[in-house]
Every structure is written in C-alpha cells, then in structure tokens.
Hints:
By secondary structure, this protein is α+β, with helices and mostly antiparallel strands. It contains five helices and twelve strands.
Amino acid sequence: xxxxxxxxxxxxxxxxxxxxxxxxxxxxxxxxxxxxxxxxxxxxxxxxxxxxxxxxxxxxxxxxxxxxxxxxxxxxxxxxxxxxxxxxxxxxxxxxxxxxxxxxxxxxxxxxxxxxxxxxxxxxxxxxxxxxxxxxxxxxxxxxxxxxxxxxxxxxxxxxxxxxxxxxxxxxxxxxxxxxxxxxxxxxxx
Length: 190
C-alpha cells in the first residue's frame, strides 16, 4: 500500500552536476545543482534549475553560457562545498583545489578533475517559482580519455554522484541490464 505524502518532491535520486560560469568581473565560479537533466536529443540540450538569488543565476543570465561538469564520487566533499559556499564570497576553485580550464568553444570554465564537462549555450529561460530553468544547447562534451572508447562512455568509470532528497549523496549501482534490450523478452512474449 502506498501512502500519499501530498505535493512533495519525490524521494528518487537526481544527478549531481557542478555548473561553471564566469561572473561579470571574469571570476570563475562553481555551483552544485541537483535539479538537472537532459531535455532534448536533437539538438542536444540539458536543463539546470537555479534559484534567482544565487550568484550563478546572475552569471548565466548575463553571459548566456555555462558549463555542466559531472563529478565522480571521489570529489564528494568538493562538490558539496561548491553547493554550500557562495561564489560572491569565495574562490571555490581555489578552496576546493580544483583546476579551471577555459572552454574551447564557449567562454566557460570547465573542471579539469571531473571526468565529464559540457559547454552549453543558453537557449531558453523559464521562470518556474523558486527556481528559473535554464536550457542550454550542448556545443561540446569533454570526456576523460580513460573512460571513453570510440563510441561508448563507461559510466562505471565516471562513477557519478546521485543526490537523494533526504540529503544523502549516493553512488550509482552496478549494471543491471542494457537499455532498449531488457524489455525485448516482454515484446516477444506479447
């Protein structure tokens, strides 16, 4: 039996990303977000949702570009720090001992230590309530050489973080099945 908790956010995990921006003074900044996800395949787009009060919000609104960096579990402390400190007051790259790398396509800071980084151009802003949703077209995706073959990225080697709404960071479990394949036995059965 399920219990109705009312209009609450789910208890499911969400991906954790660290968004990179340059502020109006040209200072690189990072912000940890869990309200994020792929929202279009062609052209490839990702959405991130940011509170209007955040330093990152103003930077994205002004610069119209941002990076999305996927941290691995070994950077959980650095990732958490980038979500609880303000870029108005702190140099997050320095404090977290992370290396900013300027994007090659867009003027955005990427995180060298994180296994995946995407350069995104802002294409839509949607005001939602407590957050604005920024939709960015992915114009470049950078992946560590050791985790990518010619056509496939090894998710286990990325070892990404997931965020639970009870405030926990979790890792991703082992491979359970192949997408677009596991359900074929049910199609054959019907």
